[in-house]
Amino acid sequence: MGARSRKLLLLLAACALAASEPLNKTAIKSDMATDTIFQYEDYDSAEDQEVLFSEDRPCPRDCICTVSQGYRIAKCNRLEVGTQKFGDDITDLVIENADPTFPINLDDFIFKKLGLHQIATIKIVNSTIGFVGPNAFHGLHELYAVNLSNNKLKTLHPETFANNKKLLLLTLSNNQLKFPEAGSHDYFLNASSVQELDVSYCNMKYITDSTFKNMPGLMYLNVAGNNLSDMDANTFKKLLDLEELDLSDNNIKSLPEDIFSENTELATLHIQRNPIDSVYGLQISDLLTLNAGQTNIKFIGPSMFNGMTYIANLNLSGNSIEKIHNQAFHKLVELNYLDLS
Ligand SMILES: *[C@@H]1O[C@H](CO)[C@@H](O)[C@H](O)[C@H]1NC(C)=O
Ligand SMILES: *[C@@H]1O[C@H](CO)[C@@H](O)[C@H](O)[C@H]1NC(C)=O
Ligand SMILES: *[C@@H]1O[C@H](CO)[C@@H](O)[C@H](O)[C@H]1NC(C)=O
Ligand SMILES: *[C@@H]1O[C@H](CO)[C@@H](O)[C@H](O)[C@H]1NC(C)=O
Ligand SMILES: *[C@@H]1O[C@H](CO)[C@@H](O)[C@H](O)[C@H]1NC(C)=O
Ligand SMILES: *[C@@H]1O[C@H](CO)[C@@H](O)[C@H](O)[C@H]1NC(C)=O
């Protein structure tokens, strides 16, 4: 593509941006999906923290306990049943960058045994977890968010979170986890309340139509960076509440046309950095945002987006696009933002 036509395309993009002022649906939907994540992050970044100390609510060895906006946070270097005893008012447990020569072993009932009966969030990141017992999180009825990213974790029993009925957010990214094999009917986790699951960079390789069948509440699913390739048309058909799906940084060459036919809530799809060359025929009735940057899309024909006519944000940047049909975006009456850089 010459410099001249590139300029023209950019102009086109700018026009599309200027011409449409109507309400910004993306902003509304995506805010909803990420709200809870940011709330969770706020706990340990708040500035008005005060150190907690009291006779009857002791802060255990190797921990610092603080209060912030009503949350009682224990930040620890390690966990050890027997020597540590937490006050049952602790709501948040944080372990970051723990010494890798002493792997953290999450034995059955460990959090209950430590006295963490009211715990709402557990964040153990950038450490080494030796193993997680199938009942490690048992009895934690207020548990709302768990972040176990980057811990060299290898396996999780499918029923690990089956009894945590309030669990909404689960982050397991950057662990070389075991997932059901191709062709198997096994499921990854039985966790019906979880709404947001991040299993990015987890060495997943295959995703079957059974992998997430016992997580019907999923609204946000991140499987980026897993070298996933071909997918069965039924892969996501049980996830009826799915709003955002991140498939970026995989090895996907094509997607079955009806793979999202049951996902009527799907508003945001990320497929950037996959060797996919077309989204022609893909049916996603309510899609608002499509990120298809750095793919192999070279030609944009007149009907490539006919199955996604409500797109408001379309990112096709970093593609070696050679030709765009003059009717390519004709049906996208809601198009607000177009990136062809
Ligand atoms: C729409 O909302 C997104 C997300 O908040 C924002 O980045 C973008 O600039 C908005 N677009 C317009 C045209 O207001
Ligand atoms: C989980 O922890 C990692 C590492 O600190 C952080 O980057 C990520 O944002 C956290 N995720 C959530 C959902 O809190
Ligand atoms: C994770 O640990 C490594 C060293 O082990 C450190 O360089 C890095 O900054 C840590 N990351 C976070 C998010 O704490
Ligand atoms: C999932 O866990 C629930 C307990 O919360 C249990 O009743 C149900 O049988 C489990 N489902 C499967 C398929 O194991
Ligand atoms: C990704 O999967 C392909 C086969 O689908 C394989 O040839 C390749 O080595 C894998 N890459 C990585 C980084 O695992
Ligand atoms: C489009 O995607 C590219 C990466 O693929 C990113 O750098 C760019 O910021 C995205 N544009 C918008 C507006 O989000």
UniProtKB/TrEMBL annotation:
> What species does this protein belong to?
Papilio machaon
Keywords associated with the record: Glycoprotein, Leucine-rich repeat, Repeat, Signal
Alphabetized PANTHER family for the sequence: KEKKON 5, ISOFORM A (PTHR45842:SF12), SYNAPTIC ADHESION-LIKE MOLECULE SALM (PTHR45842)
Q: Signal peptide position in this chain?
A: 1-20
Q: Name one Pfam family in it.
A: LRR_8
The record, for InterPro entries, names: Leu-rich_rpt (IPR001611), Leu-rich_rpt_typical-subtyp (IPR003591), LRFN (IPR050467), LRR_dom_sf (IPR032675)
Coiled-coil spans are none
Is Glycoprotein set as a keyword in this record?
Answer: yes
Q: Which domain of life is it from?
A: Eukaryota
Name it.
Insulin-like growth factor-binding protein complex acid labile subunit
